[in-house]
Amino acid sequence: MLKHVKLTLVALTLLLMLPSLSFAQESNLGNWLIYIGSKKVNEKWNIHNEVQYRNYNAIGDLEQLLLRTGIGYNLTENNNNLLLGYGYILSENYVQNGRDKFDVNEHRIFQQFTNKQKLGRIGLSQRYRFEQRFVEDDFKMRFRYFISLNIPLAKKETENPKYYLSAYNEIFLNTKSSIFDRNRVYGGIGYKLNVNIRIEAGYMNQFFETSSRDQFNLITFVDF
Q: Number of structural domains, the chain?
């Protein structure tokens, strides 16, 4: 039964990745360096903190700097979490000549609900996020749905695997104008340094209605 569930989930992940492949020839490779931390205050409350340094290329050509924090509350132990957060995003966008840049500042308030489950040894996580975005003089709202899989790489269920496979899909929907904003598909491999720290490296494709970008992601997760 467990083997059947694993195969089904892997197949589902591959299907989620198919839409991004059609844009592969138009993509440019960038690099995202990501830190995600969670501070446990007590059994119910936690503090989220996050830094993302996004580059147009390998490094040194800033696309976005994202700083995000928030306060979360566990409805049930470690499985269902409500979070109220704030984010600051600095974007450096190229003008049409492809040489000069201009800065765009965004302040963002968001509310999210995260649910985590176990399907055998496979971890399944879903996140629903609603954002209120203050982009310069404009106000926008957006809904995001995120689903991810964490698959341990171990031959026996009794083993405590250091390595794991990770995959996710996230869709962004606007509340007005063009409803579809973007979709992100990711696959990678992770390593657990200890019970509190893990690192992950993977490939992400982010595609829009008519274009896409490829990203190499290097992520550090810290629970403390």
A: 1
CA gyration radius for the chain?
18
The structure tokens listed for 116 are: 């985590």
Q: What is the mean pLDDT of residues 3-13?
A: 46
Domain that holds residue 169: 2-223
Q: What is the pLDDT of residues 90-125, one digit of tens each?
A: 999 999 877 899 999 999 999 999 999 999 889 999
Residues forming beta bridges with residue 84, ordered by sequence position: 71, 111
Which residues, other chains included, contact 60 with Cβ-Cβ below 8 Å and sequence gap of 6+? none
CB atoms within 10 A of CB 157: 9
**What is the value of pTM for the model shown?**
0.86
Contact between 182 and 208 under an 8 Å Cβ cutoff? The reply is: yes
Q: Are 169 and 147 in contact (CB under 8 A)?
A: yes
- Type of residue found at 45: W
| CATH classification at residue 39 | 2.40.160
